[in-house]
Write a structure and sequence with these properties.
The chain is α/β, with parallel strands linked by helices. It folds into two domains: 14-151, Arc Repressor Mutant, subunit A, CATH 1.10.10.10; 155-327, Vaccinia Virus protein VP39 (Rossmann fold), CATH 3.40.50. It has helices at residues 14-28, 32-41, 48-55, 59-71, 97-108, 112-129, 134-139, 143-151, 155-161, 179-184, 198-207, 246-256, 275-279, 289-295; strands at residues 46-47, 75-80, 83-88, 169-173, 190-195, 214-218, 231-237, 257-268, 301-308, 320-327. Strands 6-5-4-7-8-10-9 form a seven-stranded mixed sheet, sandwiched between helices. The chain has a three-stranded antiparallel sheet with strand order 1-3-2. α11 links the parallel β5 and β6. α3 (48-55) packs across α4 and α3 (48-55) packs across α6. The chain starts with 13 loop residues before the first helix and ends with a strand.
């Protein structure tokens, strides 16, 4: 038996070694998204952002598929600056991967989806080749990641807060741990943070202990300890679905707003996740556009604008909306 294989005792026979190497390669071809990806990477060397654009995938999904294909031997990668460019490994592919890919590619056939992939790839490649914007064409889908590595995540929201009028008094109603209050405090005259939960309020106070223009109040949103017409802008962010009667909180927000003041509400669009009632004490499974309009019938607010927020591919919860209400001047 020692003479059957030209290797040291204990080594695997060649056929067994090849079989073990083929298992992950075969497994990687079991996903149609990865097959579409290989089809494009046979034609062009692409960054993860370009692949995500061509296949209309979230970048996180494209990255996950690329890792599987890299680990199973289907792809090679090289770095250009901060970008990583991927292509089908060692053109032509070594056997037996070449035969596997030829069979898999033939099995894809022709479809509208593949034609759309080709059109989007052509657009991606055309954008890359245009002019000095080629860099951003190559790494556009990765730019958020690059920018985050260089500058962090907080600066965009903090910079946008500078749009606020520095003379404003802003009420953060249902402030939680002070996320919104911490962003606004540096840009406005005063922030009033209100929450009914003592633990939340303590966390907010700790977070903002070095900020001198934030007042804290432990109170229900249905009965605010604030003077009428004392606030320029009020925020209610992901709070109303916890309240038995959201209308009362909206009425109170309207009361404390100055004439022509603004109320901003962020909450969930209608959904069917009934388990949220039990596990997170939700009283309402989102709010419809008609419900937003109905609130204005019972208080001196007009619905100026509302729209769904773009979904975050990494978020697990229901969709969100943002609504902006304006207080009637002479109401």
């Amino acid at each position: 038996m020692d003479q059957l294989w030209p290797c040291h005792r204990g080594c695997d026979p060649p056929m067994e070694h090849d079989r073990n190497a083929l298992i992950p390669a075969l497994s990687a071809l079991a996903d149609s998204g990865r097959l579409r990806m290989l089809r494009l990477l046979e034609r062009a060397e692409l960054s993860v952002g370009e692949i995500a654009s061509a296949l209309q995938l979230p970048q996180s999904t494209a990255s996950r598929h690329l890792k599987t294909l890299m680990d199973s031997g289907w792809l090679s990668r090289r770095s250009v600056g901060t970008a990583h460019l991927h292509r089908l490994a060692d053109d032509p592919l070594p056997e037996p991967l070449r035969g596997l890919w030829q069979s898999a590619r033939a099995g894809l056939g022709h479809s509208t989806q593949l034609e759309d992939d080709d059109r989007r790839l052509s657009s991606v490649l055309a954008e890359r080749a245009r002019n000095a914007e080629a860099f951003f064409g190559r790494v556009g889908g990765e730019w958020d990641q690059i920018r985050t590595q260089l500058f962090g995540r907080a600066f965009t929201a903090e910079a946008l807060a500078a749009l606020a009028d520095p003379s404003w008094t802003v009420a953060d109603l249902g402030c939680g741990t002070g996320d919104a209050a911490s962003l606004l405090a540096a840009s406005v005259k005063k922030v009033i943070a209100v929450d009914r939960e003592p633990a939340m309020l303590r966390a907010a106070q700790k977070r903002l202990e070095d900020t001198g223009n934030v007042d804290f109040h432990a109170a229900d949103l249905e009965s605010l300890p604030l003077e009428t017409a004392s606030v320029d802008v009020a925020f209610i962010l992901l709070v109303l679905h916890h309240l038995e009667d959201p209308q009362k909180a909206v009425n109170e927000a309207a009361r404390i707003l100055k004439p022509e003041g603004t109320l901003v509400v962020v909450d969930m669009t209608p959904h069917e996740r009934k388990e949220y009632r039990e596990i997170m004490a939700h009283r309402h499974l989102g709010f419809s556009a008609d419900q937003l309009k109905d609130w204005t019938k019972h208080c001196p607010l007009d619905l100026a604008h509302s729209r769904p927020l773009r979904p975050d591919p990494n978020a697990a919860g229901p969709g969100l909306f943002v609504a902006r209400f304006s207080r009637r001047e002479n109401a």
